[in-house]
Amino acid sequence: MASVVYDRSAQELESLGPGIQGFARSVITEARRFGWPVEIRRLGGLRTAYEQEALYRQGRDSPGPRVTSLRWSKHNEGKAVDFDLIGYERSVGMPLWNFLGSWWKRSGGRWGGDWGDYGHFEL
Q1: C-alpha to C-alpha distance for 100 and 120, rounded to whole angstroms
Q2: Minimal CA–CA distance to 88: which of 34, 51, 120, 40?
Q3: φ, ψ for residue 84 (rounded to 5)?
Q4: What is the rounded distance in angstroms from the CA atom of residue 57 to the CA atom of residue 66?
Q5: How many other C-beta atoms can be found within 10 angstroms of the C-beta atom of residue 15?
Q6: Is 101 within 8 Å of 69 (Cβ atoms)?
Q7: Can you tell me the distance from the alpha carbon of 79 to that of 109, in angstroms, rounded to the nearest whole number?
Q8: Angle at CA of residue 75, ends 43 and 81, nearest 5°
Q9: Are 42 and 84 in contact, with CB atoms under 8 Å apart?
Q10: Nearest to residue 44, comparing CAs of 2, 89, 74, 65?
């Protein structure tokens, strides 16, 4: 199965700042170039302050697991993107995350895998 960018992903890419858009597209290209059999189905792109606050409250005073410790993030500035790799358990997908994280950092970005958020990439 080849990597696929769904329509929602294209919309999310367009919401990102111009600097990170190119980086995000490059991550997708790199995954495809190496034939990783995963789908890149959903990107977490630009978030409003309201959306970030709702994520912060999740697991605190609203239902669901905690997903962030930040009330403001690089997502609010259009400088972060979250990839969701479908088709593998996290442990099986770790070689891909490590490859993409290393590539991203060599390109000048910060990778969330360094603090346990493997799908998070930011400038």
Answers
A1: 11
A2: 40
A3: -120, 110
A4: 8
A5: 15
A6: no
A7: 10
A8: 30
A9: yes
A10: 74
- Short-list 104, 81, 72, CA closest to 9: 81
Tell me the pLDDT tens digit for each residue of 92-117: 778 888 988 998 999 899 999 999 88
Tell me which residue of 65, 24, 71 sits closest to 51, measured CA to CA: 71
Tens digit of each residue's pLDDT (9 = 90 or more) over 61-95: 999 998 888 999 999 998 998 887 777 676 777 88
Q: Write out pLDDT tens, residues 34-68.
A: 777 666 666 678 888 998 999 899 999 999 998 88
Q: CA geometry: angle at 48 spanning 66 and 63, to 5°?
A: 25
- pLDDT for residue 4: 61
* 1 within 8 A of 37, measured Cβ to Cβ: yes
Beta-sheet pairing, 80-86 with 110-111: unpaired
